Design the sequence.
């Protein structure tokens, strides 16, 4: 089973969600994400949130169409996305993909990235129309060449030790980087596949399409 969670981030950041559909996929709506799924003709199995981003007419329609909605108060100790990921992390999914979690409010963006650390033992990735974000513990990981041109590695812990990159334009061997470093931003694969490995810390990988926007 694969679980796809759609949040209420700006719709222009969403990739074509139908490309991710399949027989083994269960869709989950978070707040306005439930409405977006229904508008696209995709039926969620569950929806979570306080649904404060919908007007009364939209909410009533969603309630008539969905069988399983968890409506939470707006004043609570977790975001709607965290509540949904709490549920998804207990479902023994082989993959959890999160959409609608970028763009718009930066507090939600950073909060959603931090959730990848909370559920670091789960196979979760955040996807938008330009980027795929994953977080990793020490080990060796394969990287395959695909439609994402750029690959960046960002330390999430205070320090990440022993970073080794093979098959990349800018290779590294046993390199240590601290949080705040931009050394590993905007690398590229020069082969059909490569690997990255490290020995200590928590490392975020961001794969980005070449759609412009350098800062």
Sequence:
């Amino acid at each position: 089973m694969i679980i796809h969670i759609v949040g209420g981030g700006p719709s222009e950041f969403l990739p074509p969600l139908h490309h991710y559909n399949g027989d083994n996929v269960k869709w989950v709506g978070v707040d306005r994400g439930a409405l977006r799924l229904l508008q696209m003709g995709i039926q969620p199995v569950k929806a979570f949130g306080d649904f404060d981003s919908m007007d009364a007419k939209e909410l009533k329609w969603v309630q008539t169409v969905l069988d399983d909605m968890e409506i939470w108060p707006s004043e609570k100790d977790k975001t709607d996305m965290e509540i949904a990921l709490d549920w998804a992390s207990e479902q023994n999914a082989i993959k959890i993909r999160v959409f609608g979690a970028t763009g718009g409010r930066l507090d939600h963006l950073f909060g959603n990235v931090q959730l990848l650390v909370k559920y670091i033992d789960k196979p979760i990735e955040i996807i938008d129309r330009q980027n795929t974000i994953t977080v990793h513990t020490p080990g060796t990981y394969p990287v395959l060449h695909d439609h994402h041109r750029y690959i960046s590695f960002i330390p999430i812990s205070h320090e990440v030790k022993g970073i080794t990159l093979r098959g990349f334009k800018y290779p590294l061997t046993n390199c240590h980087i601290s949080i705040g470093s931009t050394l590993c931003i905007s690398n590229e694969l020069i082969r059909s596949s490569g690997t990255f490995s490290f020995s200590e810390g928590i490392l975020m990988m961001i794969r980005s399409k070449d759609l412009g926007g350098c800062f």
Notes: The chain has four helices and 13 strands. The chain has two domains: 2-129, 136-208. The helical segments are 32-39, 56-65, 80-88, 106-118. The mean pLDDT is 93.
